[in-house]
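A quick aside before the break. I want you to see a complete sequence-to-structure record at least once, exactly as it would be stored in a machine-readable document. Don't worry about memorizing anything.
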Amino acid sequence: MEVLREDGEEEEEEKKAFVMSDELEDLEEKLSKIQVHIPNVVPEFDWSSIDTSQLPASYKMNSAKEQMLLQLADNFHRQYAHLCPDREPLFLHPLNECGVEKFVSTTVRPTLQPYPELYNWDGCAQFVSDYLTMEPLPSPITPPSCLPSPTTTLKYQQGNCFGFSVVLCSLLIGAGYDAYCVNGYATREICMMDETREVCPLLKKSKEVLKKPVKEKVKKYAVKPPRDLRSKFELQQAAKKEAEIEAAEEKKQKEEEDKLMESEKPKPDPLYGLRVHAWVLILSGKREVPESFFIDPFTANSYSTTDDCFLGIESVWNHKNYWVNMQDCWNGCKELTFDLGDPVRWEFMLLGTDKPLLLASQDSDKEEEKGFDMPASWVEPIHISRKEFETRCPQGKKVIQYKKAKLEKWAPYLNSNGLVKRLTHYEDLECTRVLEVKEWFKNREDMMSMRQVNKKTEVTTEYFSPGHVQGLKAHIYKTMESETERTMEFYSETRVDGLQKRVENAQEMMEYFEGRSDFLHYRHTTFGKRTKKAQTLVNSELNARPIVQIKEQFHRNPEKPADEDVAERIFMILEERIMLTYHCKDDYITASKKEFIKQKDVDNKGNKIIMTSDMCISYQVGSSEKNKKLLHLYEMMLKLMEAEKQSKHQVWESKTEVLEILKIREEEAAASKLTVSMYDTERNEKSKQQRETMERLMQEERQRQVEQDLDYLAPFLIQMGSTEKMSKWQALRLKEDCLNDFKHRLIDKANLIQARFEKETQELQKKQQWYQQNQLSMTLEDEDAYLTYCSDAMFRIRILEIRLNRHKEMAPQKYIELEEKLCKDPRLAEYLKFYV
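That is the input. The structure line, written in tokens, reads:
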């Protein structure tokens, strides 16, 4: 029995295994039918996918002169390869975006732009660097096989170093510079646009010019200085010890710097000296350029022609000629001579008008040879619209990473607060600890142009352009609460009181003036603590902080004598004293002084107090005259007491103004309104709406007039000529022609709606493909913009679908209505009454 049971169990296990194997096979078969298609990841822009149907004929074919130029280029290249077999092939005629070979010199299209910023080399370089997006070369050690036109590069805002250089060179030559495109070799950091080891240009301090100390002439009868009675040996020993300490500190600092430099040093590049790069050369001479220099189109930085970043040059070209470098580049570009008229150092391709000077002097006696002139550029003139010029960066934003810094740029009006540039400065190389943040603004209603926040000290500095409501120039603070430490600078020429700067904290306030008629230039106010009773008062001068002392300083008034012109005036309010210090007389080292002691007008018994000599203490310099009478001193003290009241009121007004400015700044920061020029028709909503309303009314009026004057038989009657004597056959033919024409127009309208529907669908599909390719690198703002576009596109597609369906439904009805109108038309009714 046990054997039978074991056999039964084995059979059941075999059945189960057989069933499991069938299920697995079935599962594998079903899973094999499920297939996923991984999309091709495109690391760079695909130039072969661009639409070339709208490009001019010059982009798609070569003229006879261009074909001859290509033959000359091939001949020149064969001779060069034979004479210099060890050199790399020349970059002469790559393919353009249409797949047509074009000589590199004809790709340069000199164009002068209408914007003043693009008239100087730095403005052109900065625009190209901001506007285009860098893409690496397909092969880092060979030039590209395709070189698109500058117009196409600007249209798609993509390009490698050669595309960047051609665009920049075209703008520079158009602006009058002697500029050339350069094909050569550079370091890895230059080729890959790696600026993580470069200091941000905005953080570089300008070099201060050290002024040589001017030696004062020794006067013949000057007082001799006292003898130095210190031990010279002790002084020498102290100086020696200080020198040793300084040398040890310098050595330690140098070791730390070397250690830091070693840690920041990049890894060795296996392709050093082989990486191909293109940049721009500007030669001296034109546009008052004193010395030749290089421009890297990726970063817009200028470099000396002896810079270590550039390791060699193969060739240079402009819109007129092509030159090959015949000099040795074993030491980079340091020993190169950029005299393109020297045929020994630079081999030119075309003789033409750019005949080298050395050859011209040798052949002056010979008959002048006829050279081949460079054909005109096949590229259309470069056009940069105002919107493109203002937007600059692709999609309006660009981020550049520097050493311990990150620079972000935005297009104007892209951010609601007017932010156009932000520089974040870090403490460490990993950029984790923020040290300082600088932000630049444009078109703000509150005229704020820059904000600087120090994260360590938590000090915020705001800078304003002229035009602020309170004439504010700069505001330095830690918190926006009142009676805290802050500094406010003003445009003094826009203020009535001539205030230039106000420095305030909890205990004191300093004010600086200029250009005042009373010659006041400084006021210092010291405050005391509030009493509990004063804290309960609100919005009154009594609630202000109690004033302990007011010190005022005045410039010299040349219309008054020095001993009557007050230089400093101190109101000691708690001590009830007033101190005056006058300006010094010429040839005097001390100044006259007066001190007034205030007393009550009435004593405790009610008797009136008379001015006494003890109430005024004076010191008169260089005067043998008797002291002034008490009446004069009494009148002076009354004037000073009145001036004290005015000064206290002015201090209260200053504190009130501070509170008002803080309130205004909080409102401005919360609103962040932007101003739009009245000439900016795109962004000025009021003028735009008004213009659109006027255009709509005019269009409606024209449409109404057309409908009133519409005669559907007029074009057909003109073709028939005389209609006074019309036969039945002609009337029937007229009706059929009118109906056939109307039928064709209905069909054409349906085709037009269908074409628009297909166009919207294709654009939506392209946008979805773009989203899939850039999904990982997109910001939240980009995703919101994409979702908005998809929503609008689907809305337009549905509308077109509804219009097409409605048109299909209404077309037969319209056709029948027209037929009825034709039969009832008085000109045809009598002929068609038998055919109705």
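Two observations worth writing down. The CA atoms of residues 343 and 459 lie 62 Å apart. Confidence is low (pLDDT under 50) at residues 16-20, 30-43, 355-368, 534-540. We'll return to this after the break.
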